[in-house]
Amino acid sequence: MDGKAKMAAVRAMIERSTSGDVAGTLALLHPDMVFREAQGLPYPGDFVGHDGFLRLVEECAAAYALHVDSYELAYDGERVIAQMQLTATSNRSGRVLKTAVTEFYSFRDGLIADGDIYYKDSRAMWELATIG
Q1: Dist CA 14 CA 72 (whole Å)
Q2: pLDDT in tens, the chain (132 residues)
Q3: What whole-number distance in Å separates Cα of residue 75 and Cα of residue 13?
């Protein structure tokens, strides 16, 4: 799988997941995929497999509504890097936070197998989810 195909897969994952196409998103993810979230978030740790991905989506949705305002993709010869601008709206208070996130994606068997996710300000995301 070349870099263009990997970038297309990540683009499709972002588009499908933000439009609510769960089945379409899962079709792009390796059955043994791992998404890693920072310990400072209200949903920390590793989310493994399709069930883990669904749990991650649930936990995010319980905390806030996320909207991808814009994103850019790059390929470093091994991984796809997604740099996104997000708007997060607290489910508790309705408070809005604009922030950035950088995600690194690796592939196995032509599918997204690993996602390493870094929020610009994970503390602000935690506060938005827990304090409002």
Answers
A1: 11
A2: 999 999 999 999 999 999 999 999 999 999 999 999 998 888 999 999 999 999 999 999 999 999 999 999 999 999 999 999 999 999 999 999 999 999 999 999 999 999 999 999 999 999 998 887
A3: 16
User: What does the angle CA 127 – CA 88 – CA 26 come to, to the nearest 5 degrees?
Assistant: 115
d(CA 96, CA 54): 24
Check the CA dihedral 84-88-17-42 and report its sign.
Answer: positive
* Phi then psi dihedrals of residue 19, to 5 deg: -95, 0
The total domain count for the chain is 1
The CATH number linked to 99 is: 3.10.450.50
Full domain range(s) for residue 103: 3-130
Q: What DSSP state is assigned to residue 130?
A: H
